[in-house]
Structures are given as C-alpha cells and as structure tokens.
Amino acid sequence: MSLKGKVAVVTGSTSGIGFGIARAFAAQGAAVMLNGFGDAAGIEKIRSGLASEFGVRVGFDGADLSKADRVVGLISKAQADLGSVDILVNNAGIQFVAPVEEFPEAKWDAIIAINLSAIFHGMKAAIPAMKAKKWGRIINIASAHGLVASLHKVAYVAAKHGVVGATKAAAVELANDGITVNAICPGWVLTPMVEKQLEDRAREAGTDVEVEKKKMLRENQPMLKFSTPEEIGALAVFLCSDSAATITGAPLSIDGGFVAH
Can you tell me the mean pLDDT for 241-250? Predict the structure, then answer.
C-alpha cells in the first residue's frame, strides 16, 4: 500500500515503538511529524535520516505533552508545516512502579497527564480537520495493561485502561465520518529501554541478556518472544489501509499471548 499524500503525527517518536511506527509510515510515503525529548543533534540526525532514506518530509516538535496547549500546538504545527494531520498516533508514555499506598501523587499526575490526557487533547485537536476531509486514522498505543493489571503499576494501568475506553468512545462517535479509532495493546517490546533493563538485570543476577530475556517474558507472556517496534509499525500501517476501513474501536493485542492466559 501507499500513504503518499498523507501526513502522520506520531508522539514519543524519537526512539522505541514510536520511532518504529514513524519509520513504517515514512517507508510508505507519508510525511511525518516527530515528537519527543532528547539531544537536539541526535533528534536532527533521526529527522534528516528518515527524510533522506525515504524521500519524504519529516518535521519535529518537542512539545511537552503533559500540557494541553502544547498538544494542541503540536497538531497545529503539523497542519501548518506539513499541510494536514491525516493520521494521529498517540504513543508517548511514561512509567513509574510502586505499591498504591506508596505511589507518589506527583507521579500519578504525570502519568495520567502524558499517558491519558494527552491522547484526549490530541484527538480533540485533530478530529475537526479529519471530519472536514472525511478521512482520518487515529491509533492510540495502549498496552496489555490496558486490558489486564499487574503489581505496582496503578497509574499506568489506570491510564492505559482509560486509553482503551477513550478509543472506543471516539470510535463510536466517528463511525460515519470516515475516521477509524483503534488501540494497539503491546506486551513486551524489545526497545532500547527494555534492552537496557535486560542488561542491568543480567549484571545484577550474574547471568546474560538471553537468560534474562526468557525470565522477563515468562513473568507474563506464554510466547517467549518479544514484539518489535517494526512489527507494531506494520500493524499501524495496516490500520491505515483500505483493508482496515471497518476496524474501529478495537483494542488490538500484539503481545505473545500476554492477555490470553
């Protein structure tokens, strides 16, 4: 398929899952607006690299998604610089782990702001122009934790369950406007952040990364195989295709059986 002529905004896309999705869109000819934190020179290398490799326009906005006006500004910048926002992928997220009774209020507020509220603000800002064009694709990156819970992740689990609910609500409202809204729910994904966790665990346990991979996966996932950012990118591309025109309001698991057992 081709996404030539389409413009995609992908939040949290300077590394990991978000970068995998942005790269998949660029490979199909879409212009892409990147977003995220990081070293300015490193981000420019990513931006220019995508533009050069795939011959597409690639922009960047470092909007702090914990602030509603910055989310709106990200959508406005993409519309001004790239011409439209046809595809919105709400991917950015943060995590913190602690028992409920010890969970810091500030961490709760930050996780809800970035993992949930930013998705609402992004959808609200992008939908009017999508409606006017009678075409749009909104993909919210939830998590297996949008469907099930695990220990010490109260804010993350609450936010990701909220993402699935917001996805369903928006999908129902937009069902006849040419706009689909879906949630991708990954399990364990082999991102640079997870790779560092595995290295740390191996060092602490006196084992190696391959041993720690199996141990990490066995904690929740029947299939002893990580998903990859590239696989999630391919699923996002599919959801933007004509073949997925009637898939909407769906939480789509890509999790090696995480929520099936």
Answer: 98
Contact call for residues 58 and 51 (beta carbons, < 8 A)? yes
Q: Measure Cα distances from 175 to 39, 172, 180, 216 in Å.
A: 40, 5, 7, 39
Helix (H, G, I), strand (E, B) or coil at 76: helix
Catalytic residue status for 82: no
Residue that the structure tokens 């970068």 belong to: 19
- Among the listed residues 19, 25, 108, 156, the single catalytic one is 156
Nearest-10 Cα torsion for 169, 232, 109, 119: -40
> Quick one: pLDDT band at residue 61, thresholds 50, 70, 90?
very high
Percent of the chain with pLDDT over 90: 98
Tell me phi and psi for residue 44, to 5 degrees: -65, -35
Q: Residue 133 and residue 6: Cα distance in Å, rounded?
A: 12
Which residues pair with residue 53 across a beta bridge? none
Give dist(CA 217, CA 228) in Å, integer: 14
pLDDT tens sequence across 122-170 = 999 999 999 999 999 999 999 999 999 999 999 999 999 999 999 999 9
Average pLDDT on 64-72 reads 98
The secondary structure of residue 206, as a DSSP letter, is T
Please give the torsion angle defined by the CA atoms of residues 80, 174, 161 and 85, in that order, rounded to the nearest 10 degrees. -10
pLDDT at 193: 86
Alpha helix stretches (DSSP H) within the chain: 16-27, 40-54, 68-82, 105-112, 118-133, 154-173, 192-205, 209-218, 229-239
